[in-house]
Design brief:
The chain has 429 residues and is mostly helical. It has one domain (28-224, 237-426): MFS general substrate transporter like domains (Growth Hormone, Chain: A, Up-down Bundle). It has 16 helices and no strands. It is globular, with a radius of gyration of 22 Å.
Length: 429
């Protein structure tokens, strides 16, 4: 039997062990954010290639605008399958293996696009774009890795930190269109494949960084911590509570991300084609898309803080309003106005940023560590499929009506976010 001195000594020892564990978790959390952020720089450069010249490459090879939205659709369709694959692989073997595999597959897809352009094979182009989509899916899945060791008040900030670093590569990519195009021409391949050469190298480097540096694996550590800290007497109550709240949180988070993805992909996909019809150079297209992608990622650090401080609901509503403004500016901007197109596409990126971070935070809030990666992958499948639909329909809408119609429809569609998130106020913020 312990006397009072013995009890106090045991309490001190327990507190010391808990403090040590908390310090280790904090250190691992910071290390994970650092490693994932490094990979995101390369990943951002990789995803920017398809966004910038994918539609133009298809237009050149097919000789029509009607199917210019197909590359974006195929890319996002491929990313849907990859999101499921990466999510399941991460659930089984940890983030390191899942994310590394996804980036490597994306790099192979970029190489396939280059080969398709060289031999002028539309079939190989479309197949390779599906595979290339794995890089885009993995780039988004990486944002979850930063949350595995974060507490509930750090989650949106953790998501946004990794996304900020995507900005460096994502903005550099479109602005290297002319440089990479000249490089491609100098080695005897079509200029439009230049950005895909960059993408292949960038995705492979992102995979190498994660494979070498993401040790220990944050998801595996998080599972271990949960198993250690969970009180057996509370398990039944905890599962019941989470099941009730998860359904609402996952539904609302997924809906926010799906709607923002449809609107963003649809307008973004056809903007390069719209600009080329009005005589803008490839460099001008790269500049506008660079501003757009910068707005998608650069505000992330501030957005994450706002989502954690103001709540998920408020920022999701802000997403819908920002996307509406983007659609209206894009619709009524003169085709030869670079300034207004930059504003429209910047608002489009910002609205997407608000929606993605608030929606992602809702998903993380609503999932337990034991099923988190699998559920996140499944939700990202829906996000990718919605993007594929937006990309495929965008070309058809513009071919059948106009870019103005597409932009207005996209802006109005974004308003559906508001009733959905107001309904969510009955659940978590």
């Amino acid at each position: 039997m312990l006397n009072n001195d013995g009890v106090e000594a045991l309490d001190v020892q327990t507190a010391s062990l808990q403090s040590s564990s908390a310090e280790k978790q904090k250190t691992l959390y910071k290390r994970t954010l650092f490693v994932v952020s490094i990979s995101q720089i390369f990943g951002g450069a990789g995803l920017a290639a398809g966004v910038t010249v994918g539609a133009l490459l298809a237009q050149q090879m097919l000789g029509t605008d009607a199917y210019a939205g197909l590359p974006s659709a195929l890319l996002t369709l491929g990313s849907a399958g990859a999101a499921l694959f990466v999510g399941r692989l991460s659930q089984l073997h940890g983030r390191r293996i899942g994310l590394t595999s996804g980036f490597m597959i994306g790099g192979l897809g970029a190489i396939g696009v280059i080969m398709a352009a060289i031999i002028n094979s539309v079939f190989l182009l479309f197949t390779s774009l599906l595979v290339y989509g794995a890089g885009s899916a993995t780039n988004l899945q990486a944002r979850y890795a930063g949350t595995d060791l974060a507490n509930s008040k750090q989650r949106a900030t953790a998501i946004s930190t990794t996304m900020v670093f995507t900005t460096f590569g994502a903005v550099a990519g479109p602005n290297l269109v002319n440089v990479m195009g000249n490089f491609a021409h100098s080695i005897g391949v079509p200029p439009l494949t230049g950005p895909f050469i960059l993408a292949a190298a960038a995705y492979v480097l992102a995979g190498v960084v994660l494979f070498i540096m993401l040790r220990p694996d944050p998801l595996i550590i998080a599972r271990t911590l949960e198993a250690t800290n969970q009180e057996p007497s509370n398990k039944k109550h905890l599962v019941t509570t989470e099941q009730t709240e998860n359904k609402r949180g996952i539904f609302v988070g997924a809906t926010v991300m799906v709607l923002t993805q449809i609107v963003m992909v649809a307008i973004m996909t056809m903007t390069p084609v719209h600009m080329r019809h009005h005589g803008h150079s490839l460099g001008a297209v790269g500049l506008v898309i660079g501003f757009h992608i910068g707005a998608m990622y650069l505000p992330s650090l501030v957005t994450g803080v706002l989502v954690d401080k103001l709540g998920r609901t408020a920022m999701a509503i802000a997403s819908g309003i920002t996307l509406l403004l983007s659609g209206l500016v894009a619709a009524f901007a003169p085709g030869d106005s670079m300034v207004l197109l930059v504003i429209a596409l910047s608002l489009l990126g910002l609205g997407w940023n608000f929606g993605l971070i608030s929606g992602t935070a809702l998903i993380v809030d609503s999932t337990g560590i034991s099923t988190r990666a699998k559920t996140q992958g499944s939700v990202d499948v829906l996000v990718a499929l919605s993007g594929a639909a937006g990309g495929a329909l965008s070309g058809m809408i513009v071919a059948g009506t106009s870019y103005l119609t597409l932009s207005i429809v996209g802006g109005i569609l974004s308003l559906l976010l508001i009733p959905v998130v107001i309904w969510s106020r009955g659940g978590r913020k």
